[in-house]
Each structure stands twice: as structure tokens, then as C-alpha cells.
Design goal:
single chain; 193 residues; alpha+beta; Double Stranded RNA Binding Domain; SHC Adaptor Protein; five-stranded mixed beta sheet; four-stranded mixed beta sheet; 30% helix
């Protein structure tokens, strides 16, 4: 397994890198025998350290966790505990997912844009155009999943929403976390088809 351990304006020494590899390796070995790579990013905000960990599994699913604290090793350990809890919670589903799926999740490339916010003014100035200003353009990946797999992927990644291609009919769908704590599912295909 490949580890990418980096720090944003923080020096990540050999001792911390070794601790990350040992501790994260133990957790992943318990639940997922085939992770492909892990990215761990340390940063600092004020007096707190922030640790963000993303693990890519060979099935195409990703697990992510984030923690913050005043001590860098403790912050990483909290992040690893969150990852451990997520993987333990989904252990059975991950095994079932791997059993049913003989090949990795198919991923499609799509364009992703960052738009500039509209200027807040007194309303006297009308915009010349209703077209938003594109600040950045990137490529993103849209996985082909079942609805259950999409919900599991959203939960594992700690995301508020996930755009995916529904394996049942190849249409683009969205699952998202509602304000009431439930999961919403948007399937825009026509019922007349």
C-alpha cells in the first residue's frame, strides 16, 4: 500500500510518518485487506492541528476521516479512530460489496467548475449577464454504483452529497444528507420511459 503523508506548512518528520503508517496499517488490515493507497494531510489552524485522511480501497470506494486537536499525534489518533469506526460500521457491507462486484467500480470523467459569488450590492446595479463567472475548471470522477453503494460511499467519505451514475439505468443520480438526518435520493429519469 502506498502512503502519501504531507503537511501544509508543517514539517512531517520521520517519527510521525512511521507512526501514521503503523497505526493506519493496523486499522486497515482489520477491515479491508486490499487498500490501494492512503493520503494523510496535516495542517494547522490557529493553535489546533488538523488531520485529514483518505483511503482508496481496491473496490473503488473511498473512506475519509477528519479530526482536530492541540497535539499532532493525538489528532492523528482521533482521525484514525473515526476511520476505524466507519470501517467497522460498514465491514459487512464492504465484504458484501466486494463479493457481488467482480471488478472495481467504474468511474467516468466529468467537468467540475468553481463559480465566483455574485457581488453583493444595493441592487442598483444590474448584472450585464446572468452567466456566472467561472473561476476554475477541473476534472472530477463520477462512479457507477447502486443506490445502496452510493449511500455507503457518501457515509464512508463523510460527504454531504454524492453524484453517481446509477448502475440500474445508467442515469445520473444524487444522494444527499437531509437536514433531518435522513438520506435523500434524486433520480431525475422520467417515469414515462
Amino acid at each position: 500500500m502506498r502512503y502519501q503523508i504531507t503537511g501544509k506548512q508543517i514539517d512531517v518528520g520521520e517519527a510521525l510518518q512511521s507512526h501514521v503508517q503503523d497505526r493506519l496499517g493496523e486499522v486497515l488490515e482489520k477491515y479491508s485487506q486490499r487498500p490501494t493507497d492512503a493520503q494523510v494531510v496535516f495542517s494547522k489552524s490557529g493553535h489546533e492541528f488538523i488531520c485529514e485522511t483518505t483511503v482508496h480501497l481496491s473496490t473503488g470506494l473511498n473512506a475519509a476521516a477528519r479530526a482536530h486537536g492541540t497535539e499532532i499525534y493525538g489528532t492523528f489518533d482521533m482521525c484514525t479512530e473515526k476511520m476505524d469506526k466507519q470501517l467497522r460500521r460498514y465491514k459487512r457491507r464492504l465484504k458484501d460489496h466486494h463479493k457481488d462486484r467482480t471488478s472495481p467500480v467504474e468511474v467516468f470523467e466529468a467537468s467540475s467548475y468553481i463559480l465566483a459569488p455574485e457581488a453583493q450590492d444595493d441592487g442598483a446595479n444590474e448584472p450585464e449577464s446572468l452567466q456566472p463567472i467561472i473561476v476554475a475548471e477541473m476534472e472530477t470522477r463520477v462512479p457507477s454504483l447502486s443506490v445502496g453503494e452510493a449511500v455507503m460511499q457518501m457515509e464512508l467519505a463523510g460527504s454531504q452529497l454524492l453524484v453517481f451514475r446509477n448502475e440500474a439505468h445508467s442515469g445520473v443520480n444524487v444522494v444527499y444528507r437531509r437536514d433531518d438526518g435522513n438520506i435523500g435520493w434524486i433520480d431525475p429519469r422520467s417515469n414515462n420511459a
